[in-house]
């Protein structure tokens, strides 16, 4: 059996609470319809969707699943299992994290950047059952509880965040999820996240610092470091060999303004398969002025490799790609009205137990 696993920053998140739900309810939103058509074309069996606003009622998830099943009867995509939980974006903090003299509880002063709770959320859809009991989330893990964290400093060399800030500031700008999926009787851990962009800050580089440690999280987690505590009350790192790392990590090992050592360490971790990165012809065409060996791996129109599907060294993909066809291709029409990111996927062989 071949299982297709994908990651896609949909950019469906809206500027006001309830707008995405309204767009899905209407059945005529161009971006939603284009996203559904793209997913139906790629036909993933498991996919992490970034920038899907979290809706505690679950209606956004239900409507999206319904659209994938019925929007195009010839391309029905049935992903009946879903994992969606609250994230830190837009959650009021009561603190002045950006040090502008105003504790606004929105934007940069929220626990994760956002103007309302749940903005820029995450959603894992699956053709296979999800073991919610075995699944772990780390929304509440505090940044200060990571050993030797990369915390920002002000111009005087003092900590940018004070003691009160650090007592409530989580590491995750959204959340870190270790979702257990039962694939033909075999447990697969889907490690999902969407670290903050390492930009839009000041000389203190607080977002770059947070992005670094949000990515370092997975390196330490794979190494079985004992310091982790999850929202379910369990401690320690990963407890099995088979995993896939998914998400818009907002960082490249070769480009951009991030502290790159974190992504380099993660990609070179001994438990991560050392495979070439997926490629596309469209990425090369879009950035002809950039060296082909770099642009072929781009996953965003703003010219960077930001999105990942990486597997454990226990798994061997049959195929992998960035869905970015050349402009002259008929498939390129599927990108109209969609995200500024490109979908990344790979195919894994599984034997039914």
What low-confidence regions span 5 or more consecutive residues with pLDDT below 50?
A: none
Shape: globular
CATH topology, by name, is Deoxyribonuclease I, Chain A
What's the CATH class label?
A: Alpha Beta
Helix percentage range: 10-25%
Percentage of β-strand residues: 15-25%
Main β-sheet description? 6 strands, mixed
CATH architecture: 4-Layer Sandwich
Query: What's the rounded overall pLDDT mean?
Result: 96
* Beta-strand segment tally: 11
Summarize the structure.
With about 350 residues, the protein is α+β, with helices and mostly antiparallel strands.
List the helices and strands and how they pair.
Layout: E1 2-9, H1 19-26, H2 30-42, E2 46-50, H3 59-70, E3 81-83, E4 122-126, E5 130-137, H4 163-166, E6 176-183, E7 186-193, H5 206-222, E8 243-248, H6 261-267, H7 281-286, H8 292-295, E9 307-311, E10 319-322, E11 344-349
Description:
It is built from 8 helices and 11 strands. Helix 5 packs parallel to helix 6. The mean pLDDT is 96. The radius of gyration is 19 Å and the shape is globular. Strand 6 (176-183) and strand 7 (186-193) form a beta hairpin. The chain has one domain (2-349): Endonuclease/exonuclease/phosphatase (Deoxyribonuclease I, Chain A, 4-Layer Sandwich). Helices cover 20% and strands 19% of the residues. The longest helix is centred in the middle third of the chain and has 17 residues, at 206-222. The chain has 353 residues and is α+β, with helices and mostly antiparallel strands. The strands form 2 sheets. It has a 6-stranded mixed beta sheet, with no helix packed on it. A 5-stranded mixed beta sheet has the order 5-6-7-8-9, with no helix packed on it. The protein has helices spanning 19-26, 30-42, 59-70, 163-166, 206-222, 261-267, 281-286, 292-295, and strands at 2-9, 46-50, 81-83, 122-126, 130-137, 176-183, 186-193, 243-248, 307-311, 319-322, 344-349.
